[in-house]
Amino acid sequence: MPPLRGSGVGREAEDPEYAGAYRLEACLGSGGMGVVHLARSASGLRLAVKVVHEHYASDAEFRARFRQEVAAARRVSGAFTAPVVDADPEADRPWMATLYVPGPTLAEQVKRNGPLARAELRRLTAGLAEALRDIHRAGVVHRDLKPGNVLLTDTGPKVIDFGISRPVDSDLRTETGKLIGSPPYMAPEQFQRPRQVGPAADVFALGSVLVHAATGRGPFDSDSPYIVAYQVVHDEPDLTGVPEELAELVARCLAKEPAERPTPDEIMAALLPPSYEAAAFIPAQRRAVPAAPVGASEADAPGDVETRALRASGGPNGSPDGGRRRRRRWPLVTAATLAVLVGGGVWAAAGPGGDAAAGRTDRAGQAAAAKPFSAWRTALPGGGDAAPVCSFASSDGGGLYCAARGIAAARIDPATGRLLWSSPGRTGVEVQAPVLAGGLVGTVTEDGTYRTYAPGTGAAGWSADVSGYLDGVHPVGDTLLMASRSGEVTAMDGATGARLWRHGLRGHVDPRIGPYDAGSGLVTVFEAAGERHTLVTAVRVRTGEIAWQQRLARTVVPVGTAPSGALLLTELDRDARTVAVVRREPGTRAVTRVALPFPMTETKAVVDGGAAYLLSRSGTLVAVDTDVPGGRRLWQLETAAGRVSRPSVGPGDRLYFSAADGRLLAVDTARGVLLGQTDPRLRDGRLGHAGTLPAPLPTDGKVFGSAPDGSVFAVESGDPARW
What we know:
Blueprint: E1 18-19, E2 22-30, E3 34-40, E4 46-52, H1 54-57, H2 60-75, E5 84-88, E6 95-99, H3 106-113, H4 118-137, E7 140-141, E8 150-153, E9 156-159, E10 166-167, H5 188-192, H6 199-215, H7 225-234, H8 244-253, H9 264-271, H10 274-277, H11 335-341, E11 376-379, E12 389-393, E13 399-404, E14 407-412, E15 419-424, E16 435-437, E17 440-444, E18 449-453, E19 460-465, E20 474-476, E21 479-483, E22 488-493, E23 499-504, E24 512-517, E25 522-529, E26 533-540, E27 546-553, E28 555-561, E29 567-572, E30 578-584, E31 591-600, E32 604-608, E33 611-615, E34 620-625, E35 632-638, E36 648-650, E37 654-658, E38 664-668, E39 673-677, E40 697-699, E41 702-706, E42 711-716
Antiparallel strand pairs: 1-2, 2-3, 3-4, 4-6, 5-6, 7-10, 8-9, 11-42, 12-13, 13-14, 14-15, 16-17, 17-18, 18-19, 20-21, 21-22, 22-23, 24-25, 25-26, 26-27, 28-29, 29-30, 30-31, 32-33, 33-34, 34-35, 36-37, 37-38, 38-39, 40-41, 41-42
Helix pairs in contact: 4-6, 4-9, 6-8
């Protein structure tokens, strides 16, 4: 939804007090289609709630368009957009609630402080290209990208307002004569053949947005929207003032023919690597809630990331608009007028690197142990186009064991990055990290064989066929657990491969192996029965004896054990979204449920003490404390990292996770703030093809990670801001 300025008068007396269960606290602004209100969820999360004007609520076509807006916004990852928290397009007054983001729009920033500096402009270009890639991957075309629909946050730009967006496969049509965009930022095909508008139209709009960010004006500028429409279709863009290193790329974005424009991936490739070396844009925080743009979330606990104003004193001429004339707000324009200007077109709201050899690191041998730790990077030979997966065994003198597409197992010196040994072998699409169990390193190869190796030399040990088991081998201490399709669980000794026990667990027909608690020697086995309940069983690893068993309401997934012995689980809704954290007490069997502020998609969780940290696919990180009576949400952080690994907790109130582009990110768990991140590590600009991303491995003083360029790396954990 677009940012709306001022509270306005008139229709606000008709506005409801509630939208669904959300009480509307203040009016953020009013626009042609509805009113945007500030609201709070039950947990206190700040929301921006768009409520449709009453006279549109009875318009069947508008309701269809609003349903499409909600669906489009939900399809897109929240890393680059304003995630939808809740909506009801069928209400008497349709409404949609999104997370609220405090930050200026690009239009406001340029008006207040003048054009962006070159480094900021490069970062904006990369961020918006990444956002469009994410939007287009979800099958959505935004169709109205403009400076007013770009929020500048401390984690990068976010694109908002999907009011006229369309899924590529949408059959929705609207009658001729309705607004479909803002003339200075519309592509030629939006005027000429709107039913054929595709992702390339968003790239054209990106070019126009970048010209505005660089110069304070658009590439097609006139007092008349009709003349602008003609210029977009027939004239060449005015790129005066666009930095030379970006001018050619912007010109390609503004090509008249959609096929001649670059894709978002090609834009990012053209910027690498300098765009990632440019300083991130850090906007000034708003001083008051009213009149703020609508958008995504804000972590409202103490310790949120502080921001600073880049140009607090105003624009280059000392005035709020930098000495430039005020930008025009374009009115709604009908097709009947513009069709004449653009040559018979119809205007309608419709339409569908690094080191090549392993071991090119510190080769000082034993002398390296006496020196301070130095960051290193090692490329595994034959590592393929996906991130290697690794495990760290402190019990083995600090062994780092890794596997990749062409490497069944390898050992790397954690101090220097030197490759000590490797064993070639095909590991399949989903690679399992080699793990030390029973004094041997074991991994599963593509043919379903569990193979073991001597940790010191890599010499082959025993092997066994494990192809008949559901989800691989689960090392728990020195024991290997597997669940079969017949409902049985098997335990093998990690040192010899001998079977310790094998039997079915009462009540289970399709068991899954959950987390292991080394303190109690218990492993959790669970199985969901539709949406009604989940059977959870605690099993003694060495004997197979059932320690306890309980049916918990709804679909839950065990994620870890607190020091008290309490089991922490995540609760899923019917769409497999995480909606709560559940705590099951030992002894009393009492269950506490802590609802999350909004459903989280493809969530990965980690437990540290009595706290659970949940990271969604869109990069939203939520911390929940279950130790206090009834539980409570500690903080929420928007990391803007789309497609992420499972988080890992390290010493010193640190949490780490990886992003799809090879970045390693660090978060302060005490305050809920982002501490730092590494540069991306891509192979030829590609993200790779791994189904899941390996989690980082934090140890005392260092963190190990892996990246899509096929490398394993280590960085010092002391000061992530210097990564």
